[in-house]
Structures are given as structure tokens and as C-alpha cells.
Specification:
With 167 residues, the chain is α+β, with helices and mostly antiparallel strands. It has 3 helices and 8 strands; from the N terminus they run H-E-E-E-E-H-E-E-E-E-H. Strands 1, 4, 5, 6 and 7 form a 5-stranded mixed beta sheet that branches. The radius of gyration is 21 Å and the shape is globular.
Length: 167
């Protein structure tokens, strides 16, 4: 039952007061979401990004871990769901978290991401399946041609590039 649906045996002022009292306990919450980000790099050192239809920004393949799922399995699943690609191996690169991985919602809720960054290895690029895309178009970009990224992808990619050579 949502507190706004609460049946109260009083006048309108008392209902408003009761809602305000209850709102302090339910108005906002903080959540922690575990995600896997996947770097797919081709033989030329270009990185695969996908454009989102809703905001026009570009993203690395990234998705939420399901209950009971291993983070590495999340990476394999999200790579397939978002790109149609499969990888022979997911090389774990780093775990990212912190205030720069926070999303604020208009309701006052906060979501903090903990992101495992993986590099897909042994990818068959000929498998790129545009019909399986969940979002918009995807393509490989040279590092000097990177388009406007989502804030999370920008931070993940920056950190990833600091850790490893793409070739």
C-alpha cells in the first residue's frame, strides 16, 4: 500500500499532516546497483559504443547483475543482449564505485553503481547483430573520434584507458 492510498479517519488537514509525517520515512532511499561494463576492442584498437535513443549519448555495453548471477556471467549476458556478440573470455579489469557513480532521481532517491569492468576477448566481430540491439546504432570508434558519452561511460572508459593499452 502506498502512503497516499492510506485511508485516514480525519479531515483533509489531518490527512495532509499524516502524509507528511509518513513521507519523512519513505520519501527517499539510497540503492546500490551492481553492473558489468564491457570493453569490446577490435584489432585496430577501436572501441565499440552504442547510441541510446532516449538521450542521444553513447554507451559501452553495460547492464545490471541479476539476483544470484555471477558478475562475469552478467558481462557475457549483457554483451549478448546489447550487441548480439559473444566472447570466449571476459577479462576482469577493475571494480569501480564512489560518488561519481551516483544517479539522483526527481523523487529524491539515489542510486549508487558498483561497476565491474571487463574486456571481452575472443570476440567474433562478424557476429555483430543489429537486430538484437536493445537501443540505437552501434559502431567502433577510434579513441580520437569518441562521441558524446554518458557520464558513467565517460568515467568507466577514462579509468579503463588509464589501466590498459587498447592494442
Amino acid at each position: 500500500m502506498v502512503y497516499s492510498d492510506y485511508a485516514y479517519e480525519g479531515g483533509d488537514d489531518e490527512v495532509t499532516s499524516a502524509k507528511k509525517d509518513m513521507a519523512q520515512y519513505v520519501a527517499s532511499k539510497s540503492m546500490i546497483t551492481v553492473k558489468a561494463a564491457i570493453a569490446v576492442v577490435n584489432d585496430q584498437g577501436h572501441i565499440l559504443l552504442q547510441e541510446r535513443a532516449d538521450d542521444g549519448l553513447w554507451y559501452m555495453p553495460l547492464g545490471v547483475m541479476k539476483p544470484g548471477e555471477m558478475l562475469e556471467d552478467t558481462a557475457y549476458r549483457e554483451l549478448w543482449e546489447e550487441t548480439g556478440l559473444t566472447a570466449e573470455e571476459m577479462k576482469f579489469e577493475r571494480l569501480l564505485s564512489g560518488p561519481e557513480f551516483k544517479r539522483d532521481y526527481p523523487s529524491g532517491d539515489e542510486e549508487y553503481y558498483v561497476i565491474g569492468v571487463f574486456r571481452a576477448q575472443g570476440v567474433l566481430y562478424s557476429e555483430l547483430n543489429y537486430s538484437s540491439m536493445q537501443e540505437g546504432p552501434m559502431r567502433f570508434f577510434a579513441l580520437n573520434e569518441i562521441p558524446k558519452l554518458s557520464p558513467v561511460t565517460a568515467r568507466v572508459l577514462s579509468d579503463y584507458l588509464d589501466l590498459t593499452e587498447l592494442n
